[in-house]
Amino acid sequence: MPTYPTYKLGDVAEIINGKNQKEVVSPQGKYPIYGSGGIIGWATGYLCKENSTIIGRKGTIDSPIFVNRKFWNVDTAFGIQPSEKVLPRYLFFFCKSFDFKKLDKSTTIPSLAKRDLLQIPIPLPPLATQHAIVTRIETLFAELDKAVQHLRTAQQQIKTYRQAVLNHWLNNDEGKWEMVKLKDCTKKIFAGGDVPKNNFSEIKTEKYRIPIYANAVKQKGLYGYTDVSRVNEPCVTIAGRGSGTGHTEIREEPFFPIVRLIVIIPSDNLNNSFLKYMVDSKTMAITGSAIPQLTVPTVEEYEFSLPPLAEQQRIVKEIESRLSQATASETYIENALQQAEALRQSILKKAFSGELV
Question: What distances in angstroms separate CA 230 from CA 194, 238, 249, one per listed residue?
Answer without folding.
Answer: 12, 16, 16
